[in-house]
Amino acid sequence: MTDTAQRVTVALTGRGLVTAYGLGVDAYVRGTTTAGGSGTAPGPVVNGTDPIDPARIGATSDEWLGLAVDEALRESGWGPHDGVPELILVGQSEQPQDDPRTTPLYTPRTVRSSQLEWEAPLVLSHACASVLFAVDLAVRLLADGEAPAVLVAGVSTCNVYSTQSLEVVRAVGSHPPRPFDQRRDGITIGEGAGALLLERRDDAEARGRTADIEVAAVVAGIEGRSAAASDDDVVRRCMTEAMSLAAVDRLDYVHAHATGTPQGDEAEARAVSALVARLGSPPVPVSSHKGALGHLLHTSGFPGIVSATVALQTGVLPATANLERPLDIPHVLFPTTPYQPEGGVRTAMVNAFGFGGNNASVVLRDVGPCDQR
Amino acid sequence: MTGAATRPPAALGRPGEVQHRWVVAGPGPHVASRVNDRVRRAVGEQGGPGRFDGTPARVESVEAAGRRITQTCVVRAFEALRSEHGCELGSVELLLVFAARYAALQTRGLIDRVDDPGARLNPRISTDMETSEPIRGAIAELGAGGPRGALVIASAYDERTVARLAPATGHLMVMRLEVWCGSVDPREADVLVSCSVSGEPTDLPGGLA
Q: Do A165 and B129 touch (CB under 8 A)?
């Protein structure tokens, strides 16, 4: 596990998202805080090889990455005059020179937004925890003061390779997915894209931007006893270290990795339970976007982080869609409808775990004035 | 397995300065055969200070490693580097793994298998596709002595990134996980593991200086 966030104060100033709910963060927030996220009606989950209808959301999948990048830059007020942010793409592998095939498993060699273009970006590959590992790398790169900002981006589209890869390890479940539900039986693969712009908080404020969402800690590491199964002890240690590094004694919300698998969801919930018991705090609400969106695999961290930032900004916690009979685990609450906790939401954790021993937790903190909410 | 030091151990340089020490590990005795040419072919054209200079610090020939060939090569490379530098891997704050060719080969292995109607997919193809898997296996095998953190870059070795991370990281180890045969089956690929280190000697246990 690494501890990068202590050296530099990094703010998350831009977010972009394409999901089954449509283009943009707002479409996702509307979807997950109304009917689709209430737990009483299924969200627009993409079912494995049944992709998002381009006509419904107004863009084809080859446009998603650029659109997500554009939205993140727009939200942060980043223009070409601010320079070119370092780009980290998340994915399985960059396109090899000697393989001309086009496949969603290969990341593009060129990324274009409406105003900027990147050639041969860094590609980070940490399975379903890739986005959080990329945030870790972003914080490290920002520490040296050379990069004006770091953009983390990626796109995941349904394809037969990912589906069969998960089917062969018997991780795919029935539709719809039910994270944290007693009837959960596996992953439903979703698709979408995301982008996050990270910069030093001082730099963001010097640009005249509000930088209220601080990356308080990142813990990311390769560890575990199994190639595919979550390791309870490792998951608990990952979260505990993140809380310790963030130097916070309050945890208001956990956006879980929970994909709907019997083993993984329970291991994560028990790890949160142990963490909350150790903190000696009241039960902590835990939810997962994968009930609504399915599992976006390498890019699943984007809706996770966006969910947590929205909770910090609005004080409203999202529910887990399709959750009807929650696990019975102490110290943990599983909201089935969105709700606003009385004490507000100042600190949130986002988890991501993946095959190959990838484990990561990010602690986000709202450092804006309290009276804005 | 066999191992032979071909260059005397070297101390680390200034804090933040990256010292490149190549450790080559591969399956079977043939890893030592024409190793210089093969390594040059795999990494040499990328240039820069990390360029292979023709003399590996160690060549590790790994025998009968079976399906865990890459993991075993990584472990041997770790152990060889520990021996070379006298450093404890547990003090390595960040292991930066560059694995462009390796990741692409593993990914292609899955694609080819799925596209071939006569082929059968097995769970190992799925789990081994993640480059982190042999790193996880190696860290687990080393126990408490493994590196504390790791980042897997599935794109080409990037000297600038290494140079930027070195000053900001207490003890950095850079590993290049390469393959030098163009086999379509990842299990038939030879594996090149090379490591470089950077760090503040006085910060570290184990007598780096």
A: yes
Residues 6+ apart with CB under 8 A from A359: A1, A129, A220, A221, A222, A223, A224, A231, A234, A235, A238, A353
Separation of CA A253 from chain center: 14
User: Mean of the pLDDT values across residues A174-191?
Assistant: 92
Best residue in A103, A125, A225, A245 for a mutation probing chain B (most B CBs within 10 Å): A125
| Residues in CB range of A208: below 8 A, 6 or more apart | A77
**Portion of chain A with pLDDT greater than 90, in percent:** 73
CA dihedral (A106, A11, A239, B176) positive or negative:
positive
What does the pLDDT read at residue A32? 84
Instruction: For residue A237, give the nearest of B168, B2, B149 by alpha carbon.
Output: B149
Handedness of CA A353, A356, A357, A361 (dihedral sign): negative
- Rounded CA-CA distance A222/A245 in Å is 18
Contact B154 A124 (CB under 8 A): yes
Here the ipTM equals 0.90
Closest-approach residue (CA) in chain A for B147: A1
Give yes or no for a contact between A178 and A133, defined as CB atoms under 8 angstroms apart: no
Q: Per the CB < 8 Å rule, is B154 touching A92? A: yes
Work out the minimum CA distance from B145 to partner chain A, whole angstroms: 12
A161–B111 CB contact, under 8 Å = yes
B107 vs A92, A166, A357: nearest CB: A92
Amino acid at B143: G
CA distance A127 to A135: 14
CB-based contact B140 A224, cutoff 8 Å: yes
Cβ-Cβ contacts under 8 Å, A140 against chain B:
94, 165, 168-169
- In this structure, what token pair is assigned to residue B208? 């780096």
Q: Report pLDDT for A347.
A: 97
State mean pLDDT over A32-42: 52
Q: How far apart are CA A171 and CA A353, in angstroms?
A: 14
Closest partner residue to B152 among A7, A105, A126, by Cβ?
A126
Tell me what pLDDT residue B11 has.
40
> Looking at the predicted structure, is the pLDDT value of residue B199 above 90?
no
- A–B CB contacts, 8 A cutoff, strictly below: 155
Which token pair is A293? 């969106």
In sign, the C-alpha dihedral spanning A119, A120, A124, A128 is positive
